[in-house]
Each structure stands twice: as structure tokens, then as C-alpha cells.
Amino acid sequence: MASRPWLSAVGLAAITGARTAMGPALVARGASRRARTIAYVLAALELIGDKAPITPNRTAWPGLLSRILCGAGVARSVVRRHGRGRGAAGAAMVIGAAAAIATAFTGLRLRLALTRRLGGGAVANAVAGGLEDAALIAVGTRLATR
Fold it and tell me: What is the DSSP string of 95-108?
């Protein structure tokens, strides 16, 4: 089916909008061992750091810029891996950047709402973040294996 690479590209770029390093880690399976290790370590550090009260919101600069760039790169990588041409890769970058932006803002609102629903405070934020991580990993793993 022709739309599968696009679905994966957009989905993984959207995940990157929530966790900057997760999208690259999920698409790193075809990379060298060193590149995969670096991607996995960065993703793990982000998962831990995301729960810290001093971590800025995902919509603050320069974090948002890195999400945009990584989302574009992830979408391009997925589309190119599936043999799409140069024009498709360019379109994937634009769509991936847009998906990352949309998810950064939407994901922040959902995370804040869940944190409030769980009672507010640092512990509720960490629990909400952990639930968000689990959902992103589950969906991302599924998309990355398509």
C-alpha cells in the first residue's frame, strides 16, 4: 500500500514533536551500531530529563526548533527508506515539520491536562510523562516496523 510509508513518516515525526530524540531513535535501526547507540542514549536521557521540574516546555525555543528539525529529518528518512524520490523526501520534510509542531503544542496541552487530572505537582507530572512515554513508545515501535 502506497500510503504506509507516509503514515509512518507523519506518525514518527509527530512522535518527535512530543519527544525530540524518540523519532530518530525509532528510525535508527538501519543505521550503524554507533549511530543507533547514540540515538538510543539520547532518547533515554530525554525520557528521564523530561520529568524534571526544571525542564522547559516542549514549545519553548530552542527545543521547539530541534523538534521541527528532527521531525523533518525523521519523515525524510522514512520516505527515502521506502524508495520514494527526492521530491517526495522534500514534501516529507515539510509535512514532518508540521506534524512535529502540531504534536508539540497538542501534546503539551494533553500532558498538562493529565497532570491536573492526577492532582497536579511534580509527582503527577512525572506519572503523566511516564504514561505519555509508554504511549509514544508503543505507537512509535509499531510505526517504525512498517
Answer: HHHHHHHHHHHHHH
Please tell me what DSSP assigns to residue 28.
Answer: G
d(CA 5, CA 51): 32
The SS3 assignment for 57 reads coil
**3-class state of residue 138 by DSSP:** helix
Alpha carbon distances (Å) from 103 to 20, 69, 94, 122: 11, 14, 14, 22
Residue 87: HSE in the Cβ half-sphere, 13 Å Cα cutoff = 0
- Entry pTM: 0.94
Closest CA to 140 of 60, 71, 85, 80: 71
What is the per-residue pLDDT across 8-59, written as a single tens digit (0 to 9) for each? 999 999 999 999 999 999 999 889 999 999 999 999 999 999 999 899 999 9
Backbone angles phi, psi at 66, to 5 degrees: -65, -35
- In whole angstroms, give the CA distance from residue 95 to residue 30: 22
Task: Collect all residues with Cβ–Cβ distance below 8 Å to 40 and sequence separation of at least 6.
Answer: 25, 28
Rounded to 5 degrees, what are φ and ψ at 4? -60, -45
